[in-house]
Amino acid sequence: MKFWNQHKFIIRSIHQRLSRNQFLILSGVLVGLSAGTAAILLKSMVHYIHVLVNNQLEVFNYPYLNLFLPLTGILITVWVVRKFLKGKDGRGVANILLDIAQRSGVIPKFKMYSQVIASAITVGFGGSSGLEGPIAVTGAAIGSNYARTYRLTYRERILLLACGASAGIAAVFNAPITGLMFAVEVILVGVVFSDFIPLIISAVSGALISKIILNDDILFEFRSLKEFDHSNVPYYILLGVFSGLVAVYYSRVSRKIDYIFHHQLKWSPYNKAILGGLIIALLCFIFPPLFGEGYGAVKFLASNNPEGLLKGTFFNIPTENSWMIILFTGLIFLTKVLATSFTLASGGSGGNFAPSLFTGAFMGFFFASLFNKMGFNTLPVNNFTLVGMCGVLSGVMYAPLTGIFLIAEITGGYELMIPLMLVATSSYVIAKVFEPHSMDVKDLIEDKKIFTDNYDENILSLIKIHEILETEYDEISTESKLADLLWVLKNSDHQLIICKDKHQKFAGFIWFEKVKKVLLDTELQHKLTIEELVTKTSVKLKLEDNISEMVGYFDKTDLLYLPVFDDDTFVGVISKTKLLAAYRNKLRLTLS
């Protein structure tokens, strides 16, 4: 604790002596190194858990004992999350976007370590999910809490949040441009952004510390490439279309399985974990490459050595039978989606980044091998394997630039840049035709809980209803006399009088500016009743309504005030004037 306090004192002292831009660059370095260290810790934990488990299995010398390791990992993960994390592990990149949109980029502190623990256990024991999403969440939480510690502004907090996520992704793949693209395409979507230097510095810092510390056998790296042949362009475009369709399949199957486990199965978390673990055991028994992240299997494909995949399978597939190998790889890329979905839905932790790369690699190998076997052309299988990874990632994450630069960086060059661009854009366009939003954020966007590319709507989503709800008002009964209304108006500080019927239900409101000429006419005073002065509306806003919907109601009714209800109970009004003032304040906040 003493060291931490000294550290904060030093940083705050430096903060006072540096300009804003200088301090943000320094902060980018510190956040990047911290997020990169977290990524190294997580990757190393998974690596050594694998080593430890494999050594123990050799002692038992039982060939199929490892099939039940994912079940064990999911059960331990569920227990840890429920026992130590109070049922909250902060899983998923979508949660980062929710924190940006709903909590002004304030991410709870527990997310700085929850995903490291939970995903290390799940993936370390062979769960069929990825570590990149958890690392992005961890890095974002580090950046957000750094900004809170040093009392930085909203805009700076969002920047450092993105720096952390960028550095985490950069550290995993030793790919700083990929980390930068991920932050821009996925994390900062719908956010006005101009401070690129700290983001770049952070990504470089994360990648650099990863390069220095991580061993080569832990890194995800390929070097086997063939020169791009322009005559294969039609096949790359066709691969992109196929990738988009596979991405849609991935998205819909994942969402369906998640819905079944979370909404239809009324079981305890441990029973769900057992069911999911047993299904994964069966899938891994049939298709051993589904065990764990699967990057080892991807390396076999990228080096055009699919025979290595057959090790451990109970199928007696002769290595010279290429048709059987093609069928085997085709079934694997289809069932990987099931393995990942059951891992996550049953209580395991992880993300969809690595599984989408795995699916794309097997799909690309299947695609090229099938065309070669049918005699259409001689396609470079290793190139199509790598480009397929880009295609499915682009279609699943809706991040084509991330996919393009990831494959370009991990292969050590840009020889595949043209096919990568063709496949990534084709896949992205096809996926968007069937699903307007990515699988991770679809529900949140439909509920208008997170940012989209509509900037005005994003600003509105920052406004909370309690900030603009007016709960102090004078009221009068519709059965009261006009003299009572005049007395209320005379002694009131409010422009609006709420009218209720004899059952104390909301009946409408009287706006003084609208009726003052009538009220001041002495001849009309004897003829009018209060009910004739009441402005009525069929629109009833609810506390759970989002602000953009409220703006729509104001436009439709052309009213300056609208009533708000909690169920059927009237709780207050919202004025268009106050709503617009709140919008201006939030706009100023995002630009400050």
TrEMBL record:
Coiled coil: none annotated. Pfam families: Voltage_CLC. The chain crosses the membrane at residues 21-42, 62-81, 158-184, 196-214, 235-253, 273-291, 323-347, 353-372, 384-408. It comes from the Bacteria. The keyword Transmembrane helix applies. GO terms for molecular function: chloride channel activity. Its main location: membrane. The keyword Ion transport applies. SUPFAM superfamilies: CBS-domain pair, Clc chloride channel. It is a multi-pass membrane protein. Keywords: Chloride, Chloride channel, Ion channel, Ion transport, Membrane, Transmembrane, Transmembrane helix, Transport. One of its GO terms (cellular component) is chloride channel complex. It is found in: Membrane. This is Chloride channel protein. It comes from Pedobacter aquae.
